[in-house]
Amino acid sequence: MKAIKLVSIAALFAASVSSAQAQDSSDPIIIPIHNWSSQIVMSHVIGDILQSLGDHVEYVTTDSQAVYESIRLGDVTFEPEVWEGAFGASFRAAMEKGGIEDVATHAAITREDWWYPMWTKDACPGLPDWKALNDCAALFATPETGTKGRFLGGPVDWLKHDAEKVDALGLNFQVVNAGSAAAIWAELAAAEKDKKPIVVFNWTPNFAEAVWPGEFVNFPEWVDGCDTDPAVGPVPDKTYDCGNPANGYLKIAAWDGMKDKWPAAYATLKKVSFTNHQIAEMAKLVDIDEMEPEDAAQAWLDANESVWQPWTK
Ligand code: TMO
């Protein structure tokens, strides 16, 4: 009788110890929201998965570069979409200071760069070579840019260094930054009506590739250091004399205290990996189907239970 009782107490003790180890803090996990659709939907997809584990989550709208410093300090818990082209430099700088962890790499391969819809190539057949684009610059001139071609860049926080690229490669273009991603899609739709040549910032995976077949401009190939060392790249005395990585990574970064404070959420986050197709689909639910991001996340989770359920085990 006594022995049995002892065993059961021991078993209870062991059970409570192991559940204490797996117990996440009841403090909210802070998830950032940025200004492109796949990131917003993915943040809610992962947030909903973590809530299904019993975690509390909160969303904050943040600058997409400053977020790496916020994560390092523990003010934001993780970033689900670290795009190499746009955020590699900010992510690397935060990693060097410490406090942020490279938690996982998505299956997706990414590219972010100057891009044109296919009708543009009819007017400028030497594309996608960047020198051909430059020879055709006058085709892209607008009243705003005078004799120079107009390049419609993304919102400034994506920090694509397009003006430095224009200077380094001697491009006969002027950079105009869009106020939002939606402004880029609106200009593409307007240009499509009379097949007007247009060159804009775009990326993959994205919904846009399903709507407007197109190509990235081929700039001199990205090599590490092209953005920091003038000696790297084809122009000896310039930085940014190159394109963005054509086969970029997409990572998940987290505050390095997450694993101790929310061990179960952390274990799930480490298993999260989305493909190009899945990420393009998340963007499509908002940008084409016009769903609210929260509803898009729920729809994605409902349709893909076999993808994400295993991450929670
Ligand atoms: C950061 N972005 C995916 C819009 O290039």
Overview features:
binds trimethylamine oxide; disordered N terminus; D-Maltodextrin-Binding Protein, domain 2; 313 residues
Give an overview of the whole structure.
This protein is 42% helix and 17% strand. It is α/β, with parallel strands linked by helices. Strand 1, helix 2 and strand 2 form a beta-alpha-beta unit. The radius of gyration is 23 Å and the shape is globular. Mean pLDDT is 93; it is low at 1-20. Bound molecules: trimethylamine oxide.
Secondary structure topology:
Blueprint: H1 2-22, E1 29-33, H2 37-52, E2 57-61, H3 67-72, E3 78-83, H4 84-97, E4 100-105, E5 111-117, H5 119-123, H6 130-135, E6 149-153, H7 162-169, E7 173-177, H8 181-193, E8 199-204, H9 208-211, E9 214-216, E10 250-255, H10 258-261, H11 263-271, H12 276-287, H13 293-303, H14 305-308
Helix pairs in contact: 2-12, 2-13, 12-13
Residues 36, 83, 86, 112, 154, 158, 203 line the site of trimethylamine oxide (TMO).
The assigned CATH architecture of the largest domain is: 3-Layer(aba) Sandwich
The count of strands amounts to 10
Look at the structure and give the mean pLDDT. Answer: 93
Tell me which ligands are bound: trimethylamine oxide
> Class by helix and strand content?
alpha/beta
Shape: globular
Order of helices and strands: HEHEHEHEEHHEHEHEHEEHHHHH
Number of helices: 14
The largest beta-sheet arranges its strands as 7-6-8-5-9
Largest sheet: 5 strands, mixed
Strand content: 15-25%
Total number of distinct structural domains: 2
At CATH level 3, the topology of the largest domain is D-Maltodextrin-Binding Protein, domain 2
Rg on CA atoms, Å = 23 Å
CATH fourth-tier homologous superfamily of the largest domain: Periplasmic binding protein-like II
Distance between the termini: 37 Å
Uncertain spans, ≥5 residues at pLDDT below 50?
A: 1-20
The CATH class designation of the largest domain is: Alpha Beta
Q: Approximately how much helix is present in the residues? A: 40-55%
